């Protein structure tokens, strides 16, 4: 991480105006048609995989069936698959190489979120007995990325295209920072460009930064006692948590603008008449600047220490995740946007339109424009417009030129991490948006394999934005992947 944060930001802003456009032409009409045909041929298998992963609904680092499904699909399609990389049993790298040439990576996610089990219906209908759901659409993410890579591999074989296409199976994006461990272990060091996508409410190749974050669990230890007969003999761990959260609330007034702090109490005791001897708080700190996140996190640690002193308890903490802010790339944005415009987006059917209309009725404000074929104008926002989310794709973007897009897999107006998002991710609306993503990724990867000038221009911009003195240091430090960070919240352990 740069020692002077302002220099990093200035470099990113400079890159938005100082980079020459790529000089080579995009794929010609024949190449575009070939890749699209091959990508479209993957649609049935992609749909099947996406729905299977949606039904598995496995949370971070527990995605055994989801990961195995994608690995098997890629292996049967001619990829060499290496499972269990970077100390994560559900992570993998799948590769097809055809001689010397660019190495193009496509990221694949597949973890679900606790508490968002929902049928694929446009009304709130929880699935009984299921504790998680794909409220961020990662079932679509993983399946479409794999489909795109298979299509590109088949095109490379048919046309004798040189280079390498890889799929990185990345677990636990939702708070587990899976990609961080892949980056930290050097698994992207020979990649030329990395592509990704994300389910969304629009078709859009715009690029912006994101919020860096650190997340962790604060555990308080006290002394159990009868809450009525001997309260003086107890020391409540829950009191420790509550005093800490009070201190954090007062801290909010004295942190830099744009800081986000949010938390849940994951364990507050078991019975009101027992003074809790254990309690746990799960907390995030976010900001667009990684250094601000680190500084605020240090103050949160002090709040925990003070709470323990005040309540006669002890405390310890575990950092469970930590990611950089995203480093966007304008050169690659333009290429991705050209690919998106080359994809023939199919309008929603009458049934899909009815599904979307039903969900949209529950949104406040002006009704959304329910048209799956609209493509937003690609805008390079750099650091000028932060996404209010965080992603471990960010760490990849500081290691290799990286670009992504969103496609309309949700009904416009859908909030992320909601039952509406889960429903759409398991519906034909979600599958149709995933096909748009797979075709766009395939076209972009194909162009990068044959357009050396584009790759060179992307790298030039990347280096200017990152700075010559940049040295990657993971926000999670040297800890091992937190394979049990979803314990209890998923109800499976």
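-> sequence recovered:
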């Amino acid at each position: 991480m740069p020692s002077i944060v302002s220099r990093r930001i200035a470099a990113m802003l400079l890159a938005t105006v100082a980079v020459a456009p790529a000089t080579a032409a995009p794929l010609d009409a024949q190449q575009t048609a070939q890749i699209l045909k091959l990508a479209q041929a993957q649609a049935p298998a992609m749909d099947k995989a996406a729905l299977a992963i949606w039904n598995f609904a496995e949370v971070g680092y527990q995605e055994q069936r989801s990961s195995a499904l994608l690995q098997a699909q890629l292996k049967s399609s001619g990829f060499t698959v290496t499972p269990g990389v970077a100390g994560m049993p559900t992570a993998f790298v799948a590769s097809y190489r055809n001689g010397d040439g660019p190495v193009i990576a496509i990221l694949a996610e597949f973890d679900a979120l606790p508490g968002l089990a929902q049928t694929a219906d446009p009304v709130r209908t929880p699935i009984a007995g299921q504790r998680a759901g794909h409220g961020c659409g990662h079932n679509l993410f993983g399946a479409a990325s794999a489909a795109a890579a298979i299509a590109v591999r088949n095109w490379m074989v048919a046309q004798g295209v040189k280079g390498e296409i890889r799929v990185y199976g990345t677990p636990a994006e939702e708070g587990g920072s899976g990609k961080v461990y892949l980056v930290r272990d050097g698994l992207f060091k020979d990649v030329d460009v990395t592509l990704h996508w994300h389910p969304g409410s629009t078709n859009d190749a715009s690029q912006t930064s994101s919020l860096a974050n650190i997340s962790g669990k604060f555990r308080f230890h006290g002394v159990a006692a009868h809450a009525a007969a001997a309260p003086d003999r107890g020391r409540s761990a829950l009191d420790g948590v509550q005093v800490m959260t009070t201190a954090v609330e007062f801290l909010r007034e004295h942190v830099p603008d744009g800081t986000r702090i949010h938390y849940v109490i994951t364990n507050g005791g078991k019975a009101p008449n027992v003074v809790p001897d254990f309690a746990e708080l799960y907390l995030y700190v976010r900001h667009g600047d990684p250094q601000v996140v680190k500084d605020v996190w240090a103050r949160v640690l002090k709040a925990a220490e003070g709470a323990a002193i005040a309540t006669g308890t002890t405390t310890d903490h575990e950092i469970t995740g930590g990611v950089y802010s995203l480093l966007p790339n304008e050169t690659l944005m333009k290429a991705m946007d050209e690919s998106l415009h080359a994809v023939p987006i199919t309008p929603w059917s009458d049934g899909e339109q009815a599904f979307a209309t039903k969900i949209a009725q529950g949104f406040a404000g002006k009704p959304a424009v329910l048209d799956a074929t609209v493509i937003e104008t690609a805008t390079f926002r750099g650091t000028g417009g932060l996404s209010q989310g965080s992603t471990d794709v960010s760490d990849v973007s500081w290691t290799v030129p990286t670009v992504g897009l969103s496609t309309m897999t949700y009904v416009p107006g859908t909030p992320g991490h909601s039952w509406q998002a889960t429903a759409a991710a398991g519906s034909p609306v979600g599958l149709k948006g995933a096909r748009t993503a797979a075709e766009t990724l395939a076209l972009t990867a194909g162009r990068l394999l044959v357009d050396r000038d584009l790759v060179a221009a992307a790298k030039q911009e990347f280096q200017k934005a990152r700075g010559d003195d940049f040295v990657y240091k993971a926000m999670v430090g040297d800890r091992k992947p937190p394979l049990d960070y979803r314990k209890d919240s998923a109800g499976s352990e």
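The CA atoms of residues 136 and 417 lie 5 Å apart.
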